[in-house]
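Sample intake sheet
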Amino acid sequence: AAERYTTRQIVARIWHEHLRPHGVLLGCGILAMLLTAATTGAIPFLIQRTADDIFVQKNADMVVWITVAVVVITTLKAVSEYVANVTVGFLGHRFIADLRLQMFGKLAEADLGWIQTVHSGRILSGFLNDATLMRATASRTIVTLCENLLKVVILVGSMMYMAPRLSMLVLLFMPFAWLMLSRQRRKMRKSTTKSLQETGDLSALVTQTLQGMRVVRAYKQEAQEEKRASQAVNRALEYTMRGMRARALSSPAMELLVGLGFAAAIYVAGTKGVRGDSSLGHFMGFTT
C-alpha cells in the first residue's frame, strides 16, 4: 500500500491529519526554529567582526560589545533550540498516539474476513514497530523542513552577503548534492518498507510458533521453525543494513562535496587575500 503514495502525498497527509490540529503549538515551534536559525546565522558575522575589529584593527571598544553580543546570541540560541526540541518531541509522541488510536478504530470496524486472513503478529507489529518508526520519521520531517531549511537559507544569505563570489563557487556543488540525496532517499524508503514487512512476518512467526508449540514439539519441528525464524531475521537484517548503508553514505558524500567547494573557496580567497582584496574577517566569517 505504501508504494501507492509519493513522499509529497505522505507529508501532506501527515500535515492535514496530525499536524494542522496542533497549529498553535506547531507555530510556536516554528518561531523557536526561526530564532535558532537566525542566531546561527549571526555567528559568522560575530566571527568576522572579531577578526577584523579586535585582532586586525586592535579596537579595544569592540571587545566588550562583541563579548556581550556573543553571550546574548548564544543564550537565545540555547533557549530557542530547547523550545524547538521539546515542541517537536511532543508533536512526534502526540502523532504516534493519534495514529495508534486511528489504527485501533479501523481494526475494530474491519471486516472479520480480512482480520482472519491477517496474522495477529503482523497487526501487533504495526501498532508497535511501524507506528514508532512513523513517529521518528514525522519528527525528522518537521526538523528537516523547518529548522534545517531555515538554517540553510539564513546561512546561505550570510554567505552571499559577506562573499558573493565565493558563495557562488560553493553553491555550484549543490545540484550534485541534491541528486545524490534524492537517490539515497529512494533507497532508504524502499529498504525501510521491506524491513517493516519482514519485521511483521517475524512477529507473525513468533506468535504462530507460541500458539502451536504443542504441535511443533509433537512432530519434532523445532529445527524447521528455527530455520524459518533465521530466514526472517536475516531478511529483516539485510533490508535494515541497506537503509543504514544509504544513510551512512549520505554524510561522507556531502562532506566530500563540501570539502571540494571549500578547497575552491580557499584557493580563490587566498589569491584575493594575497592581492589585498579580501580581509581575514571576511574569510573566517564565510568559512564559519
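Comment: Residues 222-275 form the longest helix (54 residues). The mean pLDDT is 75.
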